[in-house]
Amino acid sequence: MEAAGDFGAPLQTLVNAVAYGDIWSRPGLPLKIRSLAALAMTAALNRPDEFRVHTRGALANGCTPDEIREILLMIAIYAGIPAANDVHRIAHEVILEREREQKG
To answer: Can you tell me the distance from the alpha carbon of 84 to that of 91, in angstroms, rounded to the nearest whole number?
Structure first.
């Protein structure tokens, strides 16, 4: 959303207030589970940019690369092989980026 600048600021405010403020802060599910659900949904909806953001978030919320891989396998079955191929590549890139950052 930063790329949208002032034009996108109202949308980002809405997203932050509702999605991250209201929904993500609810006590009913741990952040780790919410992250895995977000990965599945953004993959199924073919939203690669959102998937990348949520992959970073999933790692930050305690998801392991193995857990993310397991969700990707489920995505292949429920959302289709093409969707799984795309998000598998994205997840791998994000995981490698994070490993480089942690070493760096």
So the answer is: 10
Nearest to 91 by CA among 62, 59, 55, 60: 55
Query: What are the pLDDT digits (tens) for 51-101?
Result: 999 999 999 999 999 999 999 999 999 999 999 999 999 999 999 999 999
Query: What φ, ψ does residue 33 adopt, rounded to 5°?
Result: -70, -40
The whole-angstrom separation of Cα 22 and Cα 8 is 20
Alpha carbon distance 98, 2 (integer Å) = 21
Domains detected in the chain = 30-103 (1.20.1290.10)
How far apart, in Å, do the first and last CA atoms of the chain sit? 27
